[in-house]
Amino acid sequence: MSDVTPRLRQVEAFAVQHEGRQVIALRDPAGYTGAIVLLPRGLLEIVSLFDGEHSIADIQAAVMRSRGELVSRDRIAEIADALDEQGFLDSARFAERRAAIDSAFLEAPTRPATHGGSAYPADPAETRALFDSFFVPPEGPGPFDGHAHGDARRQRLPGGSRRDPRAVRQLLRAARGPGTL
User: Fold this and answer.
1) Fewer beta carbons under 10 A from the terminal one: N or C of the chain?
2) Are 54 and 5 in contact, with CB atoms under 8 Å apart?
3) What is the pLDDT of residues 53-69, one digit of tens each?
4) Does residue 15 sit in helix, strand or coil?
5) Residue 148 contacts by C-beta under 8 Å, 6 or more apart in sequence?
């Protein structure tokens, strides 16, 4: 392991049952890794010391003091390497991973719908129908300019194209009344 003082990234940790055992699961809320790591409770003390301030020797000594158990430096380095390989440590390896993922995202001609299929339907037509349904009376306000329900995506905002930021400003001004914005 190249990092002398391993540092765990900001990840979510939560208790789960796995194969009849209570373990701690680690998940990356930032999405740089899709992996979920399951830590046996015995490793929790070791991993909790991956704070960037404790060296592997410090971690070994802390475990010896608290448990009276000698965990080899190689074993601690193996744990750190395994977490680093999965993208859970703040390390040079993770910096390369993050740079590659960010670069691919920024260079992509389109952005993937990351919540499609979970927060809303994966199929664009189904998503469009869902969003259109928000405007259908009696719960919805109805179409903006009198077009039929299915034509909402083709409507224009006052002042021009729906892609023109000035049009949004004009819409807000009209909604709030004269003298605003």
Assistant:
1) C
2) yes
3) 999 999 999 999 999 99
4) strand
5) none
